[in-house]
Please model this.
Amino acid sequence: MIRITVDAESIEGRDGQTIAGVLIGAGRTAWRTAQTGDRGVFCGIGVCHDCLVTVNGVEGVRACQREAVDGDRVEREVRA
Amino acid sequence: MRVAVIGSGIVGAACALALVEGGAEVVVIDRVGVAGETSSRCEGNLLVSDKAPGAEADLAVSSNAMWRALAERLDADRPNGQPATEFEAKGGIVVAFGGGEAALERFADAQRATGIRAEALDVAALAAAEPFLSREVVHAVHYPDDAQVQPSTATQALLDTAVRGGARLVIGEVTGALGRPGRLSGVMTTAGPIEADVVVNCAGPWAGEVAARLGARLDIRPRRGVILVTTPMPQRVFHKVYDSDYVGAVGSGDAALQTSTVVESTPGGTVLIGSSRERVGFDEHPGVAPAAAIAAKAVRLFPFLEQTTLLRSYFGFRPYAPDHLPVIGADPEVSGLVHATGHEGAGIGLAPATAELVAHTVLGAPTALDPTPFLPSRASLQETA
Amino acid sequence: MTGAKRVAILGGGPAGLAAAQAALAAGADVTLLDEGGRLGGQYWRHHEQLTDRRLQHGWARFERLRGVLDRAEVHTGASVWSVEASDGLVRLQAVVGPADATARAALDIEADAVVVATGAHDLALPVPGWTLPGVTTAGAAQALAKRDGVTVGRRTVVSGAGPFLLPVAQSLAVAGSEVVGVHEASRIGALAAGWLPRPWQLAGKAGELVEYVGALARHGIPYRIGSGVVRVLGTDRVEGVVIAALDAEWRPIPGTEREVACDAVALGHGFTPRLEVAIALGCTIEGDRRGRFVVVDEAQRTSVAGVYAAGEITGIGGADAALAEGAVAGFAAAGGARDDARISGPLAVRRRMRAFAARLERAHGIRPGWTSWLADDTVVCRCENVTRRAIADRADAPLRAMKLATRAGLGPCQGRTCGRAVEAIVAEAGGAPEGFDRRPVLAPVRLGEVAALGRGSAVIDTEPARRDDAETTVAAVEAQQ
Model:
C-alpha cells in the first residue's frame, strides 16, 4: 500500500498504480480545473493532457503516466 | 487605380487595407492564403526597444503609434469569425546581467535622445514588475511603448477588413509579368493573368524571387528564426523581457541592440521564447541546436522555466536586405512595380507605417513619414543588387 | 560487436518488440526506447501485480519477445523528443526517467537505421457533453482496467466503432464495472460487407471475436449495432447518456433517442496513428480523411533512407499485423536479406493482415454523418475549449490561420485528440482541411532538459550582428549549400 496526499487530503493506493489509478481508486473522477469545468482522465495513455496535476511542486505531470510513489504530494492545477 | 498586392502576410494585408481605403481597386495574390508564412511564424513584436537611433527607429516609433489606433479599429465590432488582433501594450523590459549594464545604459541613453521612452528600473521596481525574473539581473530598462499582437490573427483581421472594403484575395503564385519589359501592366499567376496599374511586392523573404519573375532586381534574403512555445500556465511573465547580451558582448553604445532572447506570456497562457537568427537559406531542418541554445538563455532569465514543459517549436524566415533596412518604394528600373519588404524581424511592428508609405507611393496619399531612407534606389542596395 | 548495424527502435509494443527480435537475429546492435514504464505497448499494457490474468491476450508471445531483449539496450520511461535523419544516419534525443519528471537523464543516440513503431491511440469523436468527468476514451477504460485495476464508474456505457470495443467491455466487467451496453455505430450492412466475404482472410481474427462476444454474453452485456451515444448528460459529472439509432452514414435517426443512466462513458470510434516521429523524420505520409499513414515498401522502408516503419502507423491492422511488420522492418533495418527464410512467415502474415485491415475499415470506418450529433456550442478542441461553431466560422481560412484564430489544436495535446474532428468540421463548412501540420515537440520535455543540451555548446550562433552584419558569414554559409 502507498499513501499520497491530494490537495492536502491523504488517500491510499496500491503499489505500482499510476496517480490517476490511485485517484480513481479513491473515488475521484476529476482533479483539474479547466475553463469549462473539471477534468480527470480522458485518453489514459498520455496523449490528451487532460489529467495534468502538480506533483511534489512540479507542474504539468500526466497523472495517467506517472507511477505514484509513497508520500507524493499531488495538487490541482487551474487553467487560467 | 487597379493595384495587385503580392503576398497576404502582415505587410501585404496592411497595404491592401490602406490602398482600398485610399480608393484603389485591390487584388491580393498569395500562394497559400492569409498569413501562411512569415507572419504566422513569428512573435508579433511591435518594438521600439531594439531600435538604435536612425531611420528605422523613427519609422518604428511612428508605426507603434499607428498600431494603437489600428488595433482598436480592427477589434471594434468584429464580424463572425474575424479574430481579435490580441494587441497588448504590455511594455518591454530589457535586462543586463553583470558586466552588461554600462552598454545597456549607453544604448538606452542614445534612444532617449531620439524620443524613445526608456526608463531605468531600480531593484525594487524590477522585482515588482517581474517577480519571477532571475536575481542575477543587475540592470533593467523599461520601454513602455513596446507592444504585441498575435501576428496571424492581426494579419487575418487586416485582410478581412480590406476584403470587406472591396479587396479580392486570389490564391495563386506569381509566375511572370504582364506588359512590356520595364513597364508592368499586371502579373501572370497560376490562377490566371491579373491586370493592374501598379504591382506591390509584399512577398517577404521571397520578394527577391518575385522581383526576378517580374524582370526586376532586388536582393532580399531569408534569415531563419526558431521560437519555442511552452505549455499554458498561470501568468508569471508580465512584459516582453529581453536579455541585452548582445550589447554586453560588443560593449559599444553605438551598435544596434541585438536581443536574441525574448520571453513573454500570451493571452492563451503559453510563454513564447524567441529567437534564434541563422542565415541558412530556406533550410527547413533546424534540428535541436537552436532550441537548446534558446532554452538555455531563457532559463537563465527566468529560472522557473527550467521546470516548464516545452510544447512545440516553430520557425519562420525573416526577409532582410544587405543593408538591413526595409525596402519600401518604387523599383528604380521597372515602372509600375513597388516593393515593400526587407523588414527582417520587425515586419509586424512596421506594417502600418509601411502601408502608409506604399499608399503614398501608389496613390499620392499624404504622409508625415520620410520615405527616402527606405527607397529601393538607395545606394546601399544598388551596390549589391 | 564491431561492424554491426546500429538499429534504434522507437516503441515497445508488438511492432517494436518484433522488430527488436528480428534485428537481433540479423546481428544488429539494437537500442529500443519506449515511453511507458513497461514494455508491451497498449496491447500488452500491464503491471505485474495489478493486471488481471484474464485480460492478457497472447501473453506467451509477449514473454518470448521480451525474453530475447537481454541482448539489446532497452530504455523504458524514455521520452524521445527530437529525431533527425540525414546522410543515412539517424540522431535521437531522449530523456529517461519517471513520466514528466524534471532533470531526467539525457540520451543522445546515433543509429544507422531506425524502426518507427509508435503505434496508435484511440480516436474518440466529440459528443455534446464529452468534457464531463466520467467520459473517457475506450483506450483509457482499457488501460485503467488492465494497468491499474480500476474503473472510472460503476455503470459504464461503451460506444463507438470497431472490434476494440469488445475487449474494452470485457476489461471493464472484469475490473468491476457494470457495462450497460456496447454500442457499435456500424449497421449490419457495413458489418456484413466487411466481415462476411472471404472468411479465410480472417483466419484467427473471427475466432478471437467470437471469444469476446462469448465473454460479453457471460457478463450479460448487450451488444447493439447501428447505435451510439449522441449526447452525454450531467452537470458536474456523467449522469447518463442519450443513445440513438444511427443510419448508414452515422446520422442519428430522429425519434430513436432514449436516455440511459450511467456514471461513465467509454468512447472509441477507431484509431489515430501516432505519426509525429515519422513526420519529423520527413517520411512520406499518404491517405485521405479516413486516415493518413506512413508509406512503406515491401521491406517496411519509408521514403527516408535508414528509416523503417511498422505497425499501426502504416495502417490500422491490429497486433498480428504489427508483429509481422515489425519482424520484417527489424530484419531489413539490420541489413538482413529479403529472401531470407526467416522472414517469409511474417511476410505472408502481413499480406493477410493488410487484407484484414481493409475489411476493418469497410466495416467500421467513420462515416461523415457523425457531425450531425454535434451542437453548435459543442466543445471540439478539449484543450482550448473551441466549439464547433468557432471552427466552422473560420473554415474558409487556411488551416494554419484557422488554428491560430480559434486556438483549435494549439493546446497541450497539440491537436492529437481533436485533429480528425476539426478536419471533418472544416470540410463540412466548405474549407480545405489539408495541411494540419502538426510539428509538436515529440514528447513532453522540460525546458531545463532542452537547455542542458545547449549549455557549453557553441553549435549555433544565436546572436549575430545585424547592422554590422559580416557579409562573409552569409557568403560562407551560402557557399556550403
Chain A touches chain C through 38 residues (CB under 8 Å). Helices of chain A lie at 19-25.
